[in-house]
């Protein structure tokens, strides 16, 4: 049996593995399992945080979501899983409403999955989503303008913020870089966080569809707490333990269908 008190590198390696597996670790539990002091565990987490492995939070640490590439680079990543998430998300859209669809490759899958006979207004700040929505003859599409950002694939800044001031949405689909039950929904760009908050404040219902690699994890800027999310759509194979804390906060959690392999 390893003496973790005498082997800090092995101890930190184990903590890395737990963060990759569970997304979050608690100081008290690690202290008991590794038979070292909580002070020692806090030092380990501080070191791992300096390395960019995790972010320190009250009572432990959460895995730090890796910064993603440009919108174009992400379109092909996990395409099958995102398509299933898109179908599950699109099933939540109600006819006759005004729906905001935020930038993001998973939200692009939502736009692709909107039934062609469904009549509603789609508002977006993402050209790719606007172009996809325009393929449906029953959708009215409103494209917000402004300075384009390559990484998010969306217009951000003062112009789209001003435009949404006079809008009200029945539903909004918000993109996210990371989600954690305690830290909430977070992103890597400050302007993006500000814009998402503005949209959410003008929406009756906030829907978030996320791939499993983003739960739980944290990014740099907080958008909202989890209790502000109406519905969370996750992949079919996400552990029920991982979503239990969201359900406790009143979030309606929906699972996508499993992929059918032929």
Relative strand content:
15-25%
Mean pLDDT: 90
Q: Output the radius of gyration.
A: 20 Å
What structural class is derived from the secondary structure elements?
alpha/beta
Q: State the shape.
A: elongated
Would you state the CATH class of the largest domain?
Alpha Beta
According to DSSP, the number of beta strands is: 15
Runs in which pLDDT lies below 50 for 5 or more consecutive residues are none
Distance between the termini: 46 Å
Largest sheet: 7 strands, parallel
Please identify, by name, the CATH architecture of the largest domain.
Answer: 3-Layer(aba) Sandwich
Strand order of the largest sheet: 6-5-4-9-12-14-15
How helical, in percent, are the residues? 25-40%
Oligomeric composition of the shown chains = single chain
For this structure, the CATH topology of the largest domain is Rossmann fold
How many H/I helices? 10
H-E string: HEHHEEHHEHEHEEEHEEEHEEEHE
Structurally, the number of domains stands at 2
Plain-language structure description:
This protein has 262 residues and is an alpha/beta fold. The chain folds into 2 domains: 8-63, Winged helix-like DNA-binding domain superfamily/Winged helix DNA-binding domain (Arc Repressor Mutant, subunit A); 71-255, Rossmann fold. The protein is 37% helix and 22% strand. The chain is built from 10 helices and 15 strands. The strands form 4 sheets. Strands 6-5-4-9-12-14-15 form a 7-stranded parallel sheet, sandwiched between helices. Strand 7 (147-149) and strand 8 form a beta hairpin. The longest helix has 15 residues, at 8-22.
């Amino acid at each position: 049996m390893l003496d973790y008190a005498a082997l800090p590198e092995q101890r930190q390696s184990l903590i890395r593995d737990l963060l990759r597996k569970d997304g979050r670790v608690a100081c008290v539990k690690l202290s008991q399992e590794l038979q070292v002091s909580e002070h020692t565990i806090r030092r380990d987490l501080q070191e791992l945080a300096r390395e960019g492995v995790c972010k320190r939070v009250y009572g432990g640490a959460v895995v730090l979501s890796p910064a993603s590439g440009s919108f174009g680079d992400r379109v092909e990543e996990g395409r099958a899983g995102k398509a299933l998430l898109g179908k599950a998300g699109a099933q939540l859209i109600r006819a006759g409403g005004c729906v905001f669809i935020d930038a993001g490759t998973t939200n692009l899958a939502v736009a692709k999955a909107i039934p062609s006979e469904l009549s509603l207004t789609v508002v977006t700040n993402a050209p790719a989503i606007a172009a996809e929505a325009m393929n449906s003859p029953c959708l009215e599409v409103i494209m917000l303008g402004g300075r384009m950002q390559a990484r998010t694939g969306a217009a951000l800044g003062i112009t789209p913020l001003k435009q949404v001031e006079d809008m009200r949405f029945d539903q909004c689909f918000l993109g996210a870089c990371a989600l954690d039950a305690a830290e909430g929904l977070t992103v890597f760009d400050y302007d993006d966080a500000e814009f998402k908050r503005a949209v959410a404040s003008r929406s009756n219902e906030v829907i978030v569809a996320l791939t499993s690699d983003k739960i739980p994890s944290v990014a740099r800027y907080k958008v909202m707490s989890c209790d502000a999310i109406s519905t969370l759509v996750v992949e079919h194979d996400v552990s029920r333990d991982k979503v239990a804390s969201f359900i406790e906060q009143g979030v309606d959690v929906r699972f996508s269908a499993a992929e059918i392999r032929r």
